[in-house]
Amino acid sequence: METIKEVPIRRYQKGRLEATRDRVVVEEPLEIRLGGEPFQVLMRLPGWEKELALGFLVTEGIVEKLAEVITMHFCGTATDPLLPPNVVDVKLTHAALARRGRRHLVVAYSSCGLCAKEAVAEIRQKVPPLADGLSISPPALLDLMDRLTQAQSIYHETGGTHAVALASPDGKIFLHAEDVGRHNAMDKVIGRAFLERRDFSKIVALLSGRLSFEMALKAIRAGIPILAAVSAPTTMALELAGELNLTCVGFARDGRLNVYTHPERIG
User: Fold this and answer.
1) I need a surface site. Which of 1, 51, 200, 244 has the fewest CB within 10 A?
2) CA distances (Å), 45 to each of 32, 42, 53, 256, in order?
3) Prediction pTM value
4) C-alpha distances in angstroms, 46 versus 85, 111, 248?
5) Residue spans per domain, the chain
């Protein structure tokens, strides 16, 4: 499945325009269907389609355990057989389907009219706080972040992807994914770990970009207690993390890091 495409460009450098070619990351739609009914379309990097669909359903609060997933079928709807598949059809139990109505909270995450405290209060009614127990040293966390940076092969070729990894503190478990959307990358690794029946309470999530409200919520819903990013957190992410016992680490690069919430896990 194609993830990188070469395109003709004109590049300006050293005072001259030259015709050349560049490598660009592929972006395509993926439709998620529930029992054959259209549910959501995600723009994504091809690959790990089942994991992406499952991770999305987990982090949206619809699927809570693997037994609620009856079947997952990955197929294509295009008449041209050379075109990539673009549909994942998921059959869920009635209990999981009943949660569809809360897929989107009343709060709109961007440009909403509610303040952060109101948004967090609404989520607290539906999502339990994370359990204690996991810890990691700063050097070990920085080593894992360096490992994520080195693993971003598509980014190194195109500069056009985000990456997320889930790892155990000792690095023996290390699942990573790239995608054009950071939310998709997060859902892909969560979906993969969910299929492998990993214990989310014993792994750390690593982000190649900023630590936003949505990414914090995905980690919390999956049950991941530590979320680290190479870039900055947002205020709403920290509000949510503080209330629901998520440890947020930002600017984890170049031998340093900032711990913003629940620092007891970083020892």
Assistant:
1) 1
2) 15, 10, 13, 31
3) 0.86
4) 9, 30, 29
5) 28-121, 138-265
Tokens of 107: 């709060």
Residue of 75, 112, 115, 248 marked catalytic:
112
Task: Give the separation between CA 137 and CA 200, rounded to whole angstroms.
Answer: 18
Distance CA 179, CA 184 (A): 6
Range with the lowest mean pLDDT among 85-94, 169-178, 193-202? 85-94
The pLDDT tens digits of the residues spanning 13-70 come to: 888 888 999 999 998 889 999 999 999 989 899 999 999 999 999 999 999 999 999 9
* CATH number corresponding to 28-121: 3.10.20.10
Instruction: Name 117's bridge partners.
Output: none
* C-alpha–C-alpha distance, residues 140 and 171, integer Å: 8
Is 115 designated active site? no
Contact 239, 116 (CB under 8 A): yes
